[in-house]
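User: Fold both of these, please.

Assistant: Here is the first one.
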Amino acid sequence: MKLTTILAASLVALAPALVSAETIEVQMLNKGETGTMVFEPNFVSAQVGDTVVFRATDRGHNAETIKGMVPEGQEEFVGKINEEVEVELTAEGVIGVKCKPHQGMGMVMAIQVGDAPMPDGFLDAKLPGKAKKTMKTIVEENGLN
């Protein structure tokens, strides 16, 4: 009986966390509010347990993590071209995401999970010039630096 009571109390304590997990949508677009070849939004603030869904709104895009821009405990992902990608956020930190075919055109974004600050060296990851400039702008505009 005591084990049942402990288990029930644990489930009640966890229930708000399970219910509060959100699904956040990001569109992969040829043209958006901030220009051409963009993720919209290009910055997401989320919590561990949330899910980010990358919608293949326009053809020719994918979403994948950027090497060197994934916190420990978060699994890297590589989406296929023209396919929706669903990613569960499992660790606090900042995640860099790119569209592989269009990263040279600056198609990158950032996801901040929890309150963890941007790690040292985050902007040192290997990115083409325009992608690096776009990521730096995202970081500055959202107070991650």
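And the second sequence with its predicted structure:
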Amino acid sequence: MAEFESVEATPRVINVMSSLLQRVAESNDLNFRFDSRKMTISAFHSLTRPTISVRRYLERIFRYANCSPSCFVVAYVYLDRFARRQPLLPINSFNVHRLLITSVLVSAKFMDDMYYNNAHYAKVGGISTVEMNLLEVDFLFGLGFQLNVTPDTFHTYCCYLHTEMLTASSLHVASSSAPLTIGRAPVLHCCSNEDESTHHQQLAV
């Protein structure tokens, strides 16, 4: 879809993604607040909630990772797959930033012919290179190494993001009041089901 391949329109896509992920994180914060037994602490979890917002963090990744616009759609696919494969690791305010930087890293390596190394992504994400390497491995295992995204799946996610973009634009606000009816697990995920069988202190995540 042209809206997602156009460099000019990409910031709107980033805003829609960040809005959706923020809603997911806040919803899961509430769902798991009173029953921590339902949630597993992983390498993606920060000890404290990062001070930089999801939107600003994703905008920073977009600015400095220099990967293709398609990488962000594929990263979104990966996040949805990860969330549904790892129901005990729901996306929340403590892990969404690390999941974001890792998903974009993996997506760029899979999608683009040229990409920055892990040390660069670690600097962009406000973490150490050693930690970036560890998160990449954990993310790949969490995905079950299912990195292939078919054209149909890519189109499905593009359509979903495009619909969210139009909804937010028509309302002049992010569609935060609309419930996320996605996935089959009781935990909110990122998107509809797949169609297939800037300071360092602020960045510290």
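The chain has one domain: 2-203.
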